[in-house]
Amino acid sequence: MSRPPTTDDARARSRAFVIQGLTHRLTHDFGGGPRPLRFRDVINVQKAGTPVVLLGLMLVYQNFDPRAWMYLALHGSYGIVWLIKDLSFPDPAWQGRVTIGGALMAFLGVLGWYWVFGWLVISGLADAPYPLPEPAWFALCATLCIVGIAIMIAADAQKYFTLRLEKGLITTGMFRYIRHPNYLGEMMIYGSFALLVWHWLPALVLAWVWLGVFAVNMRAKEASMSRYPEWAAYRRRSWWLVPGVF
């Protein structure tokens, strides 16, 4: 199914480690000094703040049309879902402590931009007509978001509870056919938000996040997984992100 590894893959993974290291320094160590927060706290503040910020924007702009409510329902509820997930099975990758400067860099570099999506909708700046009638477009966005949440939650839960019992390569369940289902779920979720906004800026933000953060992390993760003896066979029979595509 998936092509065998090449020299180009090795180079790409090496670059991924360099970029990942730089990103980690910026979001965890920037400015030095005390580390009062864990990285999960920074993420959770943004997630918890999302419905509050969106409701505040609706009040400021006095915008209570269906598009604004639909955006609040999708993005706001996802923030609540994330908090429930973090309470139930927190990701070990987010437990590192960060400086104040690192927290600000994480927010300014990625997390804060997600609030801009809602501002575009609620302020009326993103008012281009949808390619489909509005109810059909809403249904498309809601479906993409809900399915994405299910994939992300299922993958993260499987990884968390499986690794608590036995360390090693996970090749069953959500990971049977694709190697990064949690990232696929996240991309579907934020893709649904971008489609609902229907503006060029969210597309640009997601291009940066997916290529500069997600793809880099996936490359680095594969380099780590390659230490397992069963990795080569698993790689050959699985897909990177989307079954039948890549």
Task: Please state the overall shape, judged from the principal axes of the Cα atoms.
Answer: globular
First-last Cα distance: 9 Å
Percentage of residues assigned to helices: over 70%
User: How does the helix and strand content classify structurally?
Assistant: mainly alpha
| Portion in strands | under 5%
The number of domains is 1
Features:
single chain, 246 residues, two-stranded antiparallel ribbon, 8 helices, 2 strands, globular
Q: What do these coordinates show?
A:
With 246 residues, the chain is an all-alpha fold. It has one domain (7-237). The chain is built from eight helices and two strands. Strands 1-2 form a two-stranded antiparallel sheet. Helix 1 (7-29) crosses helix 4 and helix 1 (7-29) crosses helix 7. The N and C termini lie close together (9 Å).
SSE layout and pairing:
Layout: H1 7-29, E1 37-38, H2 39-61, H3 66-88, E2 97-98, H4 100-123, H5 134-165, H6 181-197, H7 200-225, H8 231-237
Antiparallel strand pairs: 1-2
Q: What's this, in brief?
A:
This protein is mainly α. It has helices at residues 7-29, 39-61, 66-88, 100-123, 134-165, 181-197, 200-225, 231-237, and strands spanning 37-38, 97-98. Strands 1-2 form a two-stranded antiparallel ribbon.
